[in-house]
Amino acid sequence: MDFIDPHIHIASRTTDDLAVMAKMGCRAVAEPAFWMGYDRSGVNSFHDYFRQLTEWEPRRCANFGIDHYSWMGINAKEAEDVGFSREVIAELPSFLDRPTVLGIGEIGLHKCTRNEVATLELLIDLALSRGEMMVFHTPHLEDKYKGTRMILDLLRGDRRVDPARVCIDHCEEHTIRLALEEGYWAGVTLYPVTKANPRRLVDLVEMVGPDRLLANSSADWGPSDPLAVPEVVASMRRRGHPFSTIHQLVWDNPVAFLGQSAHFHAPI
Amino acid sequence: MSMPSNAVETLNRDWLPLRAALIDLAATLDRIDRAEGSVDEDARWAQIQQSLAVLSAPEANRAEQIQLIFSLPYEPNWRP
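^ inputs. structure came back:
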């Protein structure tokens, strides 16, 4: 079945991964800017990374018939130095205008510190002042519940926010309803050990329904699976879900969410 | 909500993975017991004990309850 992976870090994956993803039906991916596994030493490192996401990775994916889109931002793990974050944020507008950029992401919280919040407020303001869509990284493990609620508090306080244009990502059993009940899209990350897995995502579909859910691999430089989305397809088939529900989750929903950006064109 | 499953069919499908997960869980706890020293004062051990209690409870939202056991509390007045 054709599918779209709405959150994957292609910059950290091999060309062999792209070949297998294409064979399994991957037609498009969206890659949020994130922490590459090490703290960058200066603004130029971010500049080059943003160029990689907007120039090189689209070409690499195109070799396999996969459309590549990206989100621009500074991740929470490198956002503790607010002065440095301001310098990186100043780089973003010129990249946001590039033809495959969908908006600002993934931004959010990591350890939920005061400085992370300060940087996040700058990013949210930039997004809203330009009418950009947003993807939010919610924290890992014990910080997720608290951090998700703090992000929702920040968004609730700004009248410019349109929840339909925002994805709260990395949702799990204890946070997914928080996002959906306020009208946001909820991303579920299929990341072994520390996040959800295909079976638990299917449980969530059965509990809250498929509307406004996005299934993503978030495959990156850590233990992760670039074929996690087709694994969801297989799990749903095994459990007797109809084609229409599976197709909604892995195709219609990503097209509906990402398609709110004028830069996104659904694969034909 | 979507696709309410038949309980027997679900148990049939998940029987072997569930059995394996429970044995792996038991073996991990045994491994900790066999090791030198004690984890009785470790806050993570208390979380594990709370989670095990949730597993044997009758409610149907065990996964969410266990997620919350492993979560830091949210303070509504977090803004300075």
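The radius of gyration of chain A is 17 Å. The first strand of chain A starts at residue 3 and ends at 5.
thumbs up if we can close this ticket
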